[in-house]
């Protein structure tokens, strides 16, 4: 029997992540194994919804928790306010070099700001395509290869994707990138009028063919809809969840793919997502927190314990593993090209303000139409405001 005195002397770390099997279970599993290897440590993980993730500030979370699973656009804000601890000051350079060389796309640099590494990329994701192979077969339809193919399938009521504001903004960025211009590269405009207008028009042509219920669904709710009903056969772009490509996870199996071609011969370019493990500046046991983070992000753990428990690893060795792909209907192998070319969003201090509000403007346009130039003008004003926040902070 373990004495209560021994339990009371344990070093306790508290962590916060997001409430999906992909977000919570691998953290609980890695914490359990780490505790078995370090009996004097206890790591408690809590979860919150994606909406709570968006609503509660990183300052509030860092005051409450030692370990934070964060979205990379927070990096600039968190670094500027010294809310989290840079890994370079604590971890061996060789480990960080391995992380850098084994980055899935720009996952590792997405947490690097002002020359410091503020989180480890334990989870990698970008919008990819998803299908119900059984439904496509019953429709005698092949996987869409071009945007025109996607529109044709959407005309049959068989296509859906997330139309929540944040996902709509990420998809708008994707249409811009796929038309040959990355957004947010200038100080005073989100995108040139020529590309922005075309991006909005392409986007609306597809959104008009999708059921209105998807204005209420985030990416994994879209996948839940696809696996629990037999209507939607194809999702052209949504942040990938390898869970749905695993036998036994859901009623039906999804397969995941690279994106369709919008123009030219190259598939579309989506907007990088994923999640990083960061350590609060308020943590009183930084060395232990760093050691646990190093354990979670290591190649052996990422390719076994992490992925075995529903995680979507951020280490390239896991993405290239034959065993990992065998168990996930080749999710990682088939979507790696999409990750490798994904667009890295801005991470300047004020960008979260823009990101929190700009999607509403595009959603309004997709629902009700309007003047595309007017939409771009509104976005540009918001964008300039967010740039001003950066200047004022600096």
UniProtKB/TrEMBL annotation:
Pfam families given in the database record: SBP_bac_8 (PF13416)
InterPro entries hit by this protein: SBP
UniProt protein name: Carbohydrate ABC transporter substrate-binding protein (CUT1 family)
Lineage: superkingdom: Bacteria
SUPFAM superfamilies in the cross-refs: Periplasmic binding protein-like II
């Amino acid at each position: 029997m373990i004495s209560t005195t021994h339990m009371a002397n344990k070093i306790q770390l508290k962590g916060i992540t997001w409430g999906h099997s992909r977000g919570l279970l691998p953290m609980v599993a890695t914490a359990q194994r780490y505790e078995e290897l370090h009996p004097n440590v206890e790591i408690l993980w809590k979860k919150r919804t994606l909406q709570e993730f968006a609503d509660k500030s990183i300052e509030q979370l860092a005051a409450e928790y030692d370990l934070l699973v964060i979205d990379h656009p927070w990096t600039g804000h968190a670094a500027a306010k010294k809310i989290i601890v840079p890994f370079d000051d604590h971890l061996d350079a060789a480990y960080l070099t391995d992380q850098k060389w084994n980055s899935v796309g720009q996952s590792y640099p997405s947490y690097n700001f002002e020359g410091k590494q503020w989180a480890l990329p334990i989870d990698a994701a970008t919008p990819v395509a998803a299908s119900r192979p059984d439904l496509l077969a019953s429709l005698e339809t092949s996987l869409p290869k071009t945007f025109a193919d996607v529109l044709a399938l959407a005309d049959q009521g068989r296509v859906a994707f997330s139309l929540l504001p944040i996902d709509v903004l990420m998809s708008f960025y994707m249409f811009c990138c796929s038309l040959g211009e990355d957004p947010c590269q200038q100080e005073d405009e989100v995108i040139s009028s020529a590309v922005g207008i075309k991006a909005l028009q392409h986007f609306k042509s597809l959104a008009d063919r999708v059921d209105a219920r998807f204005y209420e669904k985030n990416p994994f709710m879209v996948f839940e809809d696809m696996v629990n009903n037999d209507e939607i056969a194809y999702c052209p772009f949504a942040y990938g969840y390898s869970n749905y490509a695993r036998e036994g996870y859901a009623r039906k199996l999804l397969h995941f793919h690279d994106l369709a071609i919008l123009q030219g011969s190259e598939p579309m370019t989506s907007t990088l997502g994923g999640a990083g493990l960061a350590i609060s500046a308020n943590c009183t046991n930084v060395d232990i927190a760093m050691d646990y983070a190093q354990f979670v992000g290591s190649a052996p753990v990422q390719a076994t314990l992490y992925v075995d428990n529903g995680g979507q690893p951020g280490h390239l060795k896991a993405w290239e593993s034959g065993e990992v792909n065998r168990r996930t209907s080749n999710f990682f192998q088939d979507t790696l090209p999409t990750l490798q070319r994904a667009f890295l969003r801005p991470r300047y201090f004020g960008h979260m303000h823009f990101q929190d509000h700009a999607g509403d403007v595009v959603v309004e346009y997709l629902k009700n139409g309007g003047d595309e130039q007017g939409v771009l003008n509104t976005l540009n004003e918001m964008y300039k405001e967010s740039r001003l926040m950066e200047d004022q902070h600096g």
